[in-house]
Amino acid sequence: MKIYIDGNYYDPKDATVSVFDHGLLYGDGIFEGIRIYHGNIFKLREHLIRLYESATALMLDIGMSIDSLEAAVRDTVRINNRANGYIRLVVTRGEGTLGVDPSSCKKACIIIITGDIQLYPQENYTLGISLITSSYRRIPVDCFDVRVKSLNYLNNVLAKIEARQAGCQESIMLNNSGHVAECTGDNIFIVKNGKLLTPAPYEGALNGITRQTVLELAESLGISTAETILTRFDLYTADECFLTGTGAEIIPAVNIDKRSIGKGSPGPVTLKIADSFLSYVESVS
Ligand code: PMP
């Protein structure tokens, strides 16, 4: 495996960054998780646009054009001979001094890693997963806009630990109004009376690339959709629930805070969307 760092390729044991990198010292950086299906990098442009928007919000100069970064990602995939797998693209503020002030960081550090990903065992896709509501809230938008996909995932990490300790696979994170925002690494959807509903980005959800794809696929299948406000009551009384993300793809959730959702097994709309997502991935690959 060859890892790209700032224009050079390294073996994993030699792929290192400075201990003075502000990404390490302060979580000062951004990232994307991207999938490769049958040699095609899925929605690469969309991921890069999100990355550059995150950089703009953080006043982080990536130091190369979006086209050059796209070429670097494609080269890394080619050099690693990857037809299927996962890409982790990380941009940190780079090396600086020990102080918070990022003006000492003269050049961003760009890292591209390719690898495998398996977030959930196969049986979770057929039987569904269990969720709990986390006691950790999503970072409020008035503190930090979570549409920035930053290297700060600490409350998500704590929420994930909470899920595991409760014997569940994922945590639902609420915003400060008690509305459902998303999960620790996935967006959340419910189906109610045939309609597909998901929290709006202003509720504290990342504008997921998979989420967006699902919204478009649902419309093309004639399923009406809405980006809206959801509370735990909406989740508990939903007909179906599923999560979306680059790593997880579409994963059914059948139990929330010990309440069985719908019939307690993946529902027909979820299965239809999951099927249509897989066909879509095949069709663009
Ligand atoms: N929410 C969070 C907090 C995430 O980290 C992710 C990505 N892992 C998602 C949602 C899903 O986004 P995407 O579909 O773009 O992977």
Explain what you see.
With 285 residues, this protein is of the alpha+beta class. It has helices at 22-26, 44-58, 66-79, 122-127, 154-165, 209-220, 232-236, 268-284, and strands spanning 3-5, 8-10, 29-37, 40-41, 85-92, 109-115, 129-133, 170-174, 180-183, 187-192, 195-199, 225-228, 240-245, 249-256, 259-260. A hairpin with a 2-residue loop joins strand 14 and strand 15 (259-260). 4'-deoxy-4'-aminopyridoxal-5'-phosphate is lined by residues 33, 156, 182, 185-187, 206, 208-211, 244-246.
Mean pLDDT: 97
- What distance separates the N and C termini? 23 Å
Q: Provide the number of structural domains.
A: 2
Mind summarizing the main beta sheet? 9 strands, mixed
Number of strands: 15
The topology string of helices and strands comes to EEHEEHHEEHEHEEEEHEHEEEH
Cofactors and ligands: 4'-deoxy-4'-aminopyridoxal-5'-phosphate
- Supply the CATH architecture of the largest domain: Alpha-Beta Barrel
Structural class, from helix and strand content? alpha+beta
Cα-based radius of gyration, to the nearest Å: 19 Å
CATH hierarchy class name of the largest domain: Alpha Beta
- The coarse silhouette is globular
- Beta-strand percentage range: 25-35%
Count of helical regions: 8
Task: Tell me the CATH topology of the largest domain.
Answer: D-amino Acid Aminotransferase, Chain A, domain 2
